[in-house]
Amino acid sequence: MSLHRIFCLLAGGILFSSLAFGAEFREFKNTSGQSIQGKITSATDTEVTLQLSDGREITGGINYFSPGDQKFIAEWKKKHPAQIDYDFGVDFSRERTDRNEKREGNIEVTYEDWIYNITVENRSKDGNTGAAVSGLELQYNLIKTAKAKAREASYLHSDMSPSKGKMVKPGKVSLETMKYLDETKVSTEVIPITASELAPGWYYADGTKDEQNDEFEGIWIQIYKDGRKVYEAKHGTKEAELTKWVPPKGGRKA
């Protein structure tokens, strides 16, 4: 039953006497001044769970409570930090978002933009109970091997860093508050993937192959809570496993 429904029942006369409760029970008020007796059993950054006298538990948004109760809930959280075992299910998919072909002298060049779409499922638990999570940041490294011969290569790589012979584009994105088994979907910034080929009738005197193509090796993600890494995963080729983590601006080193 929702907090709103409970408060409405109480306002209609279905009241619980405070004398029936132990010391842990107290009066909570909502922003409309309606009150309820209960005790906190758990709280996240956005929600609180109260136990009523009959053993039922109700969960609702912290901002539903009066300012004084919000302060009490915040103090309770400090005294009872959640022991969350962070765990996530992560699905990755690549998507090409742009493609352009150009002739640069005697070289035919194809410029493509690619992104990763990431679906994160919250599987975190507090003991044996599913836990809501909030305040998470997903950091990522997009990894490629740069091989193509293109005039714009230096410009395209200006926001990337070399790592173990690869080029890495770091980034980060905030994750929404997720209840247990909820999913949230995010996308990375684009990474340029380029292919080049000598025009017909031309060849390299040193025997270099006519085609020189970038390889999109994969992605490495790390999830942080209050600056602490709580999860990481990789997706892609074995080459992606060889790189060293490149933190995004304001991010953390691995």
Blueprint (SSEs and pairs):
Elements: H1 3-11, E1 26-29, E2 35-43, E3 47-51, E4 57-61, H2 67-79, E5 84-85, E6 88-104, E7 107-122, E8 125-126, E9 129-130, E10 136-145, H3 153-156, E11 161-163, E12 166-174, E13 183-187, E14 191-198, E15 211-213, E16 215-225, E17 228-236
Q: What can you tell me about this protein's structure?
A:
With 254 residues, the chain is mostly beta strands. Strands 6, 7, 13, 14 and 15 form a 5-stranded antiparallel beta sheet that branches. Strands 11-12-10-16-17 form a 5-stranded antiparallel beta sheet, with no helix packed on it. The chain has a 4-stranded antiparallel beta sheet with strand order 1-2-3-4. The chain contains 3 helices and 17 strands. 10% of the residues lie in helices and 47% in strands. It is elongated, with a radius of gyration of 27 Å. It has 2 domains: 3-81, SLA1 homology domain 1 (SH3 type barrels, Roll), CATH 2.30.30.700; 85-242. A hairpin with a 5-residue loop joins strand 3 and strand 4 (57-61). It has helices at 3-11, 67-79, 153-156; strands at residues 26-29, 35-43, 47-51, 57-61, 84-85, 88-104, 107-122, 125-126, 129-130, 136-145, 161-163, 166-174, 183-187, 191-198, 211-213, 215-225, 228-236. The longest helix has 13 residues, at 67-79.
Would you summarize the structure shown here?
This protein has 254 residues and is mainly beta.
**Shape descriptor:** elongated
Number of helices: 3
What structural category arises from helix and sheet content? mainly beta
Distance between the termini: 43 Å
Order of helices and strands: HEEEEHEEEEEEHEEEEEEE
Low-confidence stretches: 10-22
- Biggest sheet details: 5 strands, antiparallel
Helix fraction by DSSP (H/I, runs of at least 4): 10-25%
Radius of gyration: 27 Å
Number-wise, the strands total 17
Strand content: over 45%
Total count of domains: 2
Could you report the average pLDDT, rounded to the nearest whole number? 86
